[in-house]
Backbone:
């Protein structure tokens, strides 16, 4: 596992955008695994600017997002469909049919999960997966526990995650309790992984991610088993290393 420590949020975002742009420039039809949350917002901004400067072309790129809230309509401003449109998709030349996000409004959720895995497989697997990390060490919505999901599944969010994500919603009871998330094997099958973390509230999780033990209570620690993982973190997130 490689760790890159950047001074601050902005340089972390720039570094992540540069790595993603290198991937796309080397392989224009790359399959990218994308994350939401406040952490990657700066990276998306950088990528949009690079696109406007003609430094990156997304016309052949295929994307798969990590997760979506269950039963939150795509037009809801807190849905990850909405987030991706606003922060990234509508600003670059990605073809809408090449962008994929689990659909939270489906009736048959197991079929959706199976179909999502199948689509990733048919696309040839993920070339580069971008991850954020929860302060409890979750990646995607793979929450700490005795067991972790292997493939895409409907998951229950922990109280810590609901509480943390309530900052985006009007009130705590508006935060969905469930989500569809890709599983751990789906993430670990990516050829390359970059994990971004910024701020003191991630320092403990980052320390536990790389401390030399794999523990399902810290899902991000499983990344130690992956041969091509790079952590791009700012000094605050690195403060306990
Ligand atoms: P954040 O969320 O980027 O909003 O901190 C990260 C996550 O929960 O995975």
Residues:
């Amino acid at each position: 596992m490689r760790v890159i420590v950047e001074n601050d949020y902005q340089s972390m975002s720039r570094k992540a955008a540069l790595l993603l742009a290198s991937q796309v420039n080397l392989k224009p039809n790359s399959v990218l695994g994308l994350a939401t949350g406040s952490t990657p917002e700066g990276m998306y901004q950088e990528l949009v600017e690079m696109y406007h400067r003609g430094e990156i072309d997304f016309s052949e790129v295929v994307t798969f997002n990590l997760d979506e809230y269950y039963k939150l309509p795509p037009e809801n401003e807190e849905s990850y469909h909405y987030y991706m449109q606003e922060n990234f998709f509508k600003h670059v030349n990605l073809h809408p049919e090449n962008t994929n996000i689990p659909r939270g409004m489906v009736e048959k959720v197991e079929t959706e999960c199976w179909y999502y895995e199948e689509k990733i497989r048919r696309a040839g697997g993920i070339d580069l997966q971008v991850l954020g990390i929860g302060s409890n060490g979750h990646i995607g919505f793979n929450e700490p526990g005795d067991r972790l999901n292997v493939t895409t599944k409907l998951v229950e969010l922990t109280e810590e995650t609901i509480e943390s994500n309530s900052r985006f919603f009007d009130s705590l009871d508006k935060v969905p309790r469930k989500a569809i998330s890709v599983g751990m094997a789906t993430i670990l099958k990516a050829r390359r992984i970059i994990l971004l973390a910024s701020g003191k509230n991630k320092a403990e999780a980052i320390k536990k991610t790389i401390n030399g033990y794999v523990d399902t209570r810290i899902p991000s620690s499983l990344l130690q088993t992956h041969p091509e993982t790079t952590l791009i973190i700012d000094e605050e997130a690195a403060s306990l290393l």
About this structure: The CA atoms of residues 126 and 190 lie 5 Å apart.
